[in-house]
Amino acid sequence: MKRILISNDDGIDAPGIRALYDEISRIANVTLVAPTSQRSGIGHAISLWNNLTLEERKTNGNIWGYGLEGTPADCVKFAVTTLMKEPPHLVISGINRGQNVGNSIFYSGTVAAAAEGTMFGFPSIAVSLGTFDDNVARYDVAARFTARIANLILVKGLPAGVLLNINIPNVSDEEIKGVVISKQGQSTFTDLFEPRERHNGLPAFRNIGGEITKSNGDEDYDDLVLAQNKISITPLRFDLTHHDLREDLDRWMRKHVEDEIFELSRIKPNPQT
Q1: Each residue's pLDDT tens digit, 198-207
Q2: Beta-bridge partner residues of 58
């Protein structure tokens, strides 16, 4: 069977990752390594020079996963370099509690875990569900769809350096209105720092977040697709170079910066007195 590595940023005890594990275990040998605690919004942080404890999680004496006292990226690094005897054929991060669309992908530990898999050279996907309420979350729907996509990727693969960011509406199978190959939108959380009780005598604040602004314009932006009860699949790449700008920027730099350097070279130091 194929080997699939699963991680997340909600932590090993989150219901989304367990639903994903139960479904993916039907089609592959699964290694699950996830943070021991909630690490949402941690982005692509890694732990350097810290001791990271490892906890086994068992059911009826059988290990089904490992909790690592680290970040989502740490979990993927540890699994690939230390825990797994053979590399995974696919890395899946999720199922996240809440969507990861628009600018949220830059903060998302869920997307970061998939990106780490991509950096290792493995096909990787990040999966998020469009609700923050576990009491009504349809992780079962998201898990079944993820298994279908996983099977497809195991056969077709993905281009090097590309991951799929998948966002699934929190509705039943019958209520899903389609699948759209989308693009990253412009939506973002508005920051709201709320004063808290003083900590060690110092002022304290917590960013509780405000409203989510929506993208403007194209209907195929990821957040707008999700709002229509459609599944959003956005191919992301983490080469951040603006290739189209390089040639123009080179001409501009040569014209202005080199002229400036030339002028500076003509300035003579003041004679010492």
Answers
A1: 888 899 998 8
A2: 63
